[in-house]
């Protein structure tokens, strides 16, 4: 099939019924690829922050795609069941409720799901936000002074505790040349 | 109350917004610019300065997306897509031959969507262009005859071509162009609002030793 035939077929299908879910899902899919890619290409940010942000952006769109689809289709099905009397009315109600479903997804469902799910998922994968890492580093350092201290093991104690300098250290005579008698 | 909800759900105006890619994307982006910052602001795990900063950043991002979309993508892709489809893909067939541009088609479509033939024809006869010529004169005999029918031809290929170019424009605009523009715009805007400075001031190394533990 030539590319023009595919375009014609797509045009016919979109002309007959342009579901509101199509465009939002297409945008979310391309955003899910492009936004993390752009973030990773940013040279001003440090690599760990870039990785975290890119993964977060990707996950947001991964959540958004099924959310749009489920909300739209669910609302459309409700319309079909409610307005089953007139076909024209049912079709219009289906389109309208689908659009309302997509709007609800954009306004409540996706931000809600993201704030609930992203952090636990990121933690499970092993990615912590730079803010959390900083908080961990800045958290109070507890010094344990109650439990008994473990004795320090020293090797060759005799040598270690011999802190007195050798007598030769204090000799004022010259160390070079011919020595006659004495030390 | 129930009848009001029913009327809203079956409203033809809402249906035309829902079937129109540009309007539905604009509505969805507007809602995103409210919803996402809103959810950031009600998050209890984040401190208030970070919340303000993240919410402002998200709002500015969505607002930039909407502005880029409305200013660049809608006019370029709507008009360009129609002309490409008319000249190269459909070669002036499947209804494209009746319309000079996308504006003419959208006007015809609006009339064709009106279920009453009487209302449709009276609107067509009443409406005039800026130079005082009747819109009816712009329509050829085929289109006029179609509008007199109970179920006029809506030229689905033309509608589909307009929507397809709008979808392509929306995807390119919102997923590729808008993030680039917003990247250049957001940081100066946040600085101007005093939020970037606030973020920089956040404590970096505030180590406290708890000797009582």
Which helices and strands occur, and which strands form pairs?
The complex is a heterodimer of chains A (183) and B (213).
Chain A: H1 3-16, H2 20-41, H3 47-82, H4 87-125, H5 130-138, E1 141-142, H6 157-161
Helix pairs in contact in A: 2-3, 3-4
Chain B: H1 2-9, H2 12-19, H3 21-41, H4 48-89, H5 102-113, H6 117-126, H7 135-138, H8 141-148, H9 156-193, H10 195-200, E1 209-210
Q: Quote the average pLDDT of chain B.
A: 84
Structural class of chain A: mainly alpha
Between the first and last Cα atoms of chain A, what is the distance in angstroms?
Answer: 108 Å
The proportion of residues forming helix of chain A, as a percent range, comes to 55-70%
Fraction in beta strands of chain A:
under 5%
Portion of residues within helices of chain B:
over 70%
Shape of chain A: elongated
Strand content of chain B: under 5%
Q: Separation of termini of chain B?
A: 63 Å
Computed Rg of chain A:
36 Å
Helix and strand element order of chain B: HHHHHHHHHHE
Order of helices and strands of chain A: HHHHHEH
């Amino acid at each position: 099939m030539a590319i023009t035939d595919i375009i014609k077929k797509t045009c016919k299908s979109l002309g007959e019924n342009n579901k509101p879910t199509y465009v939002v899902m297409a945008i979310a899919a391309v955003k899910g690829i492009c936004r993390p890619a752009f973030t990773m290409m940013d040279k001003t940010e440090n690599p760990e922050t870039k990785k975290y942000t890119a993964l977060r952006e990707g996950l947001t769109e991964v959540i958004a795609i099924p959310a749009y689809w489920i909300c739209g289709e669910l609302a459309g099905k409700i319309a079909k069941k409610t307005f089953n009397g007139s076909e024209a009315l049912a079709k219009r109600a289906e389109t309208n409720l689908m659009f309302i479903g997509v709007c609800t997804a954009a306004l409540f469902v996706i931000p809600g799901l993201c704030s609930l799910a992203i952090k636990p998922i990121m933690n499970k994968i092993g990615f912590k936000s730079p803010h959390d890492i900083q908080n961990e580093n800045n958290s109070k350092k507890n010094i344990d002074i109650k439990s008994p201290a473990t004795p320090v093991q020293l090797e060759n104690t005799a040598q270690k505790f011999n802190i007195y300098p050798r007598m030769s250290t204090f000799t004022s005579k010259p160390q070079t040349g011919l020595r006659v008698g004495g030390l | 109350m129930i009848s009001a909800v029913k009327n809203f759900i079956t409203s033809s105006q809402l249906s035309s917004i829902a079937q129109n890619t540009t309007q539905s994307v604009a509505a969805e982006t507007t809602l995103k610019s409210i919803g996402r910052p809103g959810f950031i602001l009600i998050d209890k795990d984040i401190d208030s300065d970070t919340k303000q900063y993240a919410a402002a950043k998200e709002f500015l991002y969505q607002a930039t997306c909407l502005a880029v979309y409305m200013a660049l993508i809608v006019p370029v892709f709507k008009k360009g897509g129609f002309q490409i489809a008319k000249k190269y893909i459909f070669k002036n067939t499947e209804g494209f031959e009746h319309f000079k541009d996308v504006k003419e088609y959208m006007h015809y479509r609006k009339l064709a969507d009106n279920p009453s033939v009487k209302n449709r024809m009276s609107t067509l006869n009443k409406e005039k262009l800026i130079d005082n010529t009747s819109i009816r004169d712009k329509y050829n005999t085929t289109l006029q005859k179609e509008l007199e029918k109970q179920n006029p031809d809506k030229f689905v290929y033309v509608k589909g071509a307009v929507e397809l170019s709008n979808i392509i424009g929306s995807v390119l605009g919102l997923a590729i162009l808008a993030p680039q523009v917003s990247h250049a715009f957001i940081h100066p805007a946040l600085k101007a609002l005093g939020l970037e400075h606030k973020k920089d001031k956040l404590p970096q190394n505030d180590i406290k030793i708890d000797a009582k533990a």
